[in-house]
Amino acid sequence: MTAKAIMRVGKLKSLGSVGGSEKHTARLQDTPNADPYKENIRLIGEDDDPELEKIVLSKIDDHTKHKPRKDAVLCSEIFLSASPEFFRPHDPSKAGEWDEELMWDFANASSKWLQENFGDKCVRAELHLDEATPHIHAYIVPINDKTKQLSHKEMFGGDGRQASIKLSKFQDSYAQALAPLGIERGVKGSKATHTKVKEYYSSVNSEPLTLELDRLAPKQGETAQQLFKRIKSDPTIQTINHQLADHRRIIELEKRASQKANASEKLRSELENRVAELEEENFYWKQQADQLRDLPLEDVAWHLGLDKADKGENRWKGLGQVININDSKWYDFTAEKGGGGAIDLVMHVAGCNFRSSVAWLHDRFGSLGMLRATKAYVETQATKIVAEEPTPQFVLPKKDDEKWQAVHNYLTKTRGLPENFITALRSNGWLYADDQQNAVFTMRELPNEAPSLKTETTGAFLRGTRGEDNSFMGYALGTKRTKGWFYFHLGGKPTDEVEKVVICKSPIDALSCAALSVSAHSGMSPTRTMFLAVDSPKSLPLDFLKDIPAITVACDSDETGHSMARAIKELLPQTTIARPKTTDWNTELLEYSRQESTGRLEAENKRNRGLEY
């Protein structure tokens, strides 16, 4: 009977699934149906290559223009094999055995087919010889050469119950590559491959295993532990276990395949082909629309230092301005001036000219974002501007020591922050007063992101302190919200690595959380802890935080705080969420201090009454 070619394609959508697949195919974990006495062979790739996750990420970074979509397939896994009668033509039922020359013919033809069809997109191929029948697991990074984007659908077609036309063509191609070996393509839509698998294991079902049972009998003087150890190391028993485990797995796969084959093959094929056509059309028109559409003004406003106002669905506030954004139009209520597009908004808020605005957009959004904002008719001019015009740099607000006492009183008396905290921040240059009596909290690069010991200041957060009901707060002009942060450390030694990070929405909340932490521990914790001010998931330093073992998000107790905490936990699974009993952490600190003061006063009154008595 003629042997059949077998090809299946799977999708790995996350790095976790890539790593999990590698653990199985590279035998980095225990595999019940694998014979531990047989070695597998890496056909493509080297044995000392880095982890598959790193290889896939490197290939994506080097050959794609855009960051992969959240639902993108990062890696496609291909399973290649042939039915058992090819490898053992004299007795296909002998699982785990094969003709060495035939096996290498199959391996070489399959390896050549992978290289001819996928080139360097095939980053690894493993030949498995420790299971019932030789087979290959290959990993393909599905990069579209035209769009420079990941696209499993473009390469292999859509998924679903029936293979697409593109996948069917690959199966035809693979069968043609194996045809010189006497292997042919199976009948499309039939269950022939599953029948062959059933025949392959017929010997396991029919042959009694009683001939091997004498191996399980204890020898004279042998303890139960010695018997168990001997059985576990017996290669024949291991082979039987391997065959039974593989048999159970095949039965389950065959059951699923039979269930899937019940629906109409013709109808499913027509529907899936139509879906694939519509998806391709939608992808094309979306690309065209993105190239014509201007940058979202909300993103531009956020990078300018503005924040969504509490009232008014489309209003943004900051730096003394209230700006309404409606699609590509904006209007400043304070200046009574409006305009359209990203360039006009940057020129208005930053107070710069056209050239500086283009340079600013390039600095924040890169070349593609800048060109989207300037549109096609200024593409040549904008590129020249970027090359010649220096990017506007952030300049710290001017320090005014005469205003410091008022700022100091506001922070220590009105907001209840510990005086030693405020003194330490000022001595390090991380807090000072400007000429408008604002508390200036400097924002710096994180230690591991700067080449020198002294981190660069990239921005500043301002908090108004003038007047009883002052509510002014915002970022100093030119602040890069994704390049620097306000932070400080407590506990442990200065040379210790950071083991915990507490994320708060503002510098004052971070100081309040730190003060409450010191009070709760009756002093400094031995754990080196960073307190970090982050008011949006957009500005999270993910590269730094992903390696921190413990993260606490301490946001406000309102819905906005809950939403931000949930978003951060989704990005950083090691996160725990802490909520204040009051509205925010500074209010919590003030309430704690009030109770402490009341308790001390009551204790003093009791002592005085005792003396009077």
Key traits:
BirA Bifunctional Protein, domain 2; 613 residues; six-stranded mixed beta sheet; DNA Primase, Chain A; alpha+beta; 44% helix; single chain
Q: How is the secondary structure organized here?
A:
Elements: E1 3-12, H1 15-25, E2 41-44, H2 52-63, E3 75-82, H3 84-87, H4 100-118, E4 122-128, E5 135-140, E6 143-144, E7 149-150, H5 152-156, H6 165-178, E8 183-184, H7 192-200, H8 202-206, H9 224-233, H10 235-260, H11 265-292, H12 297-303, E9 307-308, E10 315-318, E11 321-326, E12 329-332, E13 337-340, H13 342-350, H14 354-374, H15 379-388, H16 404-414, H17 419-427, E14 431-433, E15 438-444, E16 457-464, E17 473-475, E18 486-490, E19 500-504, H18 507-520, E20 529-533, H19 542-545, E21 550-554, H20 559-571, E22 575-578, H21 585-612
Taking strands numbered 1, 2, ... along the chain, how are they ordered across the largest sheet? 2-4-5-3-1-8
Helical fraction: 40-55%
Radius of gyration: 33 Å
- Terminal Cα separation, in Å? 111 Å
Which regions are unreliable across 5 or more consecutive residues at pLDDT < 50?
Answer: 190-213, 287-292
Arithmetic mean pLDDT: 82
Give me the number of helical elements: 21
Number of strands: 22
Structural class: alpha+beta
Number of domains: 3
Largest sheet: 6 strands, mixed
Strand share of the residues?
A: 15-25%
Using the alpha-carbon principal axes, give the shape. Answer: flat
Quaternary structure: single chain
Protein name: DUF3991 domain-containing protein
GO molecular function: DNA binding
Keywords: Coiled coil
InterPro entries: DUF3991, Mob_Pre
